[in-house]
Amino acid sequence: MNRLDGSISPYLQSHADQPVDWYPWGEEAFAEAARRDVPVLISIGYQTCHWCHVMSRETFSDPRIAESINKRMVAIKVDREEHPDVDAAYTAQAIAFGTTVGWPLNIFANAEGIAIFATTYLPPVPRMNQQGFGAVVVSISRAWTKKRSEDHGCRPVDLSDHSPPEVRHDADFGECVHEKWKLEDDHHVHHHRAEQPCVLA
């Protein structure tokens, strides 16, 4: 049982028994990430999204992947129908990366809520030409450990009112993300082009 137990959202309730130590959207999760000095995984979906439930079953219910997520980052599960503002903000950030946006939308961010990488559905392990989500988690964590001291250009975002992070569209933000958080070549991660029905037109 994780922190989603007792959530009003049926989508969040469907993740309450998973081994991932999910937080609901709010300041507590970002404060914990800052305390531990780890990145944040923000996974956004909704109840009727087919691929959200596929990834839930394949990946987030896998004890080994859940253990890796819990060890390396703070995980937040968001119902986009409950928090459309959060979904809109991170959709815009994902688009800024050149990611084809769909759901589940998985954002990796720093403790200020600024996205550093985005992807949609990924299988738990590499499949065909898709990177495995477990490898992405490890790659993000390694890049974080190596590069966090170089993160000087991103401006902080005030999350004290639980509002979504400010969306960055300027060149400085893009340069900060792509240069400061470049992943290791031996664990290269490609932005995933979603092949699923839950995709923006």
Features of this protein?
201 residues, alpha/beta, Glutaredoxin, 5-stranded mixed sheet, 7 helices
Could you explain the architecture of this structure?
Helix 4 (63-72) runs parallel beside helix 6. 39% of the residues are buried. With 201 residues, the protein is an alpha/beta fold. Residues 152-197 have low confidence and may be disordered. It has helices at 10-13, 27-36, 50-60, 63-72, 84-96, 133-147, 171-180, and strands at residues 22-23, 40-45, 74-79, 105-109, 115-119. The protein is globular, with a radius of gyration of 15 Å.
What string, H for helix and E for strand, traces the elements in order? HEHEHHEHEEHH
Residue share in helices?
A: 25-40%
By DSSP (H or I, 4+ residues per run), the number of helices equals 7
The CATH homologous superfamily is named Glutaredoxin
